[in-house]
Amino acid sequence: xxxxxxxxxxxxxxxxxxxxxxxxxxxxxxxxxxxxxxxxxxxxxxxxxxxxxxxxxxxxxxxxxxxxxxxxxxxxxxxxxxxxxxxxxxxxxxxxxxxxxxxxxxxxxxxxxxxxxxxxxxxxxxxxxxxxxxxxxxxxxxxxxxxxxxxxxxxxxxxxxxxxxxxxxxxxxxxxxxxxxxxxxxxxxxxxxxxxxxxxxxxxxxxxxxxxxxxxxxxxxxxxxxxxxxxxxxxxxxxxxxxxxxxxxxxxxxxxxxxxxxxxxxxxxxxxxxxxxxxxxxxxxxxxxxxxxxxxxxxxxxxxxxxxxxxxxxxxxxxxxxxxxxxxxxxxxxxxxxxxxxxxxxxxxxxxxxxxxxxxxxxxxxxxxxxxxxxxxxxxxxxxxxxxxxxxxxxxxxxxxxxxxxxxxxxxxxxxxxxxxxxxx
Length: 425
Description:
Blueprint: E1 12-14, E2 20-24, H1 28-36, E3 53-54, H2 58-62, E4 72-82, E5 85-94, E6 102-106, E7 112-115, E8 117-121, E9 124-133, E10 140-145, E11 150-154, E12 156-157, H3 182-195, E13 200-204, E14 215-220, E15 228-235, E16 244-248, E17 258-262, E18 267-271, H4 284-292, E19 299-303, E20 316-320, E21 339-343, E22 353-357, H5 366-380, H6 386-394, E23 396-400, H7 405-411, H8 416-424
Helix pairs in contact: 3-5
């Protein structure tokens, strides 16, 4: 079937008569090719039907293919133990769909283990599942439905014996021993690709990040109506940091509002307007309008959030603008090119692959390190450790080590936890 381009990814089941049941998603053309091979879809009433049950696509259903399922089919029943004790994990599919009420019991003692929860993905029923702690692992479980249907399956150890992994022998580990900022993570990623050109390649994704950068900023004014939010036009590290804002009382009556920039001191000077008595009459809104109307100034001004800038501005400053980014100088400020490390002996797209993707959010500092350690272990142990070498001969692995380089660069350098770990390494 795989030679026909039909993916067989679901479990294959054998009934008491020795017939195989395979769930497939097929098109009209694929259905015709299967029929030519003597494989026909089963129907609910055709007990003598051959060995294929078609989980039909819309195209296949339109061609008259029917579907058939056992009332309850246990997809897997696994048992495992961790620091919290033993657990049983069961997945089962009901012919009735998501509305079926399924319960799980210890097949030997009859103890009720729990009620299963249906899993519906994008509006399509997939299966029911249950993950539950137990006092001891049962030998088998029984899944029952409210309509009286039931199915039973042995509880298999997880991971299975074939999947169990051993660190015995010469198996190097510990390639990551400290927190890394995004620049260092990418440098390690590229170093792995250079060291293992026959097993890896770097794929650059088309959309770059915003970059570890922002404009320098500051606020003047003590209340919302008087407040003015200042932003540099340049990025902070490219000339915005250090610009000063000075709101001055001219010290004389009937003076007009004026704004200017002193390049020698990097100071935006705002001389506030005054009335006949010499008191300042300029509102925050008038300052904002005057500043934004002068294209020669290196800053822009905005009201504070949704406040109406009607308050009279008080003299203040100088207020120094900053981007408040404290990463070391080696951390890249420009937009990141997100890179994928594609691994595998055969990387031609002919085999199903695994996709690992790390650090969706800024403070997920450990996930890229786990992904990097995983990649390093697989590569360095490829030729010396059989389970790893065998796995990558037949599969391809794509790892996005650092998906949130900007955010990680923003949060990490200022965090006491990363500083403590770095100092201790």
